[in-house]
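User: Show me an example of a complex going from sequences to structure tokens.

Assistant: Sure. Here are the input components:
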Amino acid sequence: MLTAFFFYFAFATVVSSIFTIGFRSPVYCTLALLSTFLHVAGLFVLLHAEFIAAIQIIVYVGAVLVLYLFILMLLDLKSNESFMHKQVWWAVFFGIVIIVEILIGLFKSPIMGKMPVPVSAEEAIGNTQAIGLALFNKYLLPFEVVGLILLGAVIGAMVLAKKVPLKQKAVSAKVE
Amino acid sequence: MIPLSYYIVVSTTMFVVGLVGILIRKNFLIILFSIELMLNAANINLVAFSHYSGKVDGQVMSIFIIAVAAAEAAIGLAIIIILFRGKATTNVDEMDLMKW
């Protein structure tokens, strides 16, 4: 049963991530990305990381993707003639080569025989309490730094998206 | 029980799909989507290793990655907005202002 769920989520993740880069219309790409994120959240649940799965759905699907869809709505993209570069087949070929290389490296590696088995998945692991204890004790400083990064991103986005005043625009046009 | 290597296979495939997406697409938005795919592939790896080693450190790291991805989305969308205001396109081939 668990294995069947795993294969469903893994297959759906890979297929919808391929759709994400394959569709022509950006709206369809966004919806395929949403499907990818939801199935990755399913993989997280299978890994007993329920908190991360919830965060994945709330932050990625609920915030980031809705932001992307809003921007798509604002931009009014016209469908341009060719949506892919000329090097598409080279890129696909080398992508497959990279996958095969990594998998050969993985399955030929000496650690492959002694892959660890999950350690007592039921207790504490994937638990919100355990994550909170680790986050606010061991990783307190990185947590604060991430808060600073988010603050910087908010301020940066506001500064970037602000309309340039007319006087400055004239000056920059003269420079150009 | 599902072996750890299966999760590595999934995340490798997803990462390379994101890499190929950055290389082949012309739309700036889809390039940002591909970056999100690559970050999420890293998340799968971190959470899988965290589950199989019995420590929560990997899950904490994936929370940090999600926060950084949200910051990156905000900044990337702001950049798209100002580029679109100037050129009325999201095609990366036409953004050659800083090309030497």
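The lines above are the inputs; the final block is the predicted structure for all two components together. Chain B has three helices and no strands.
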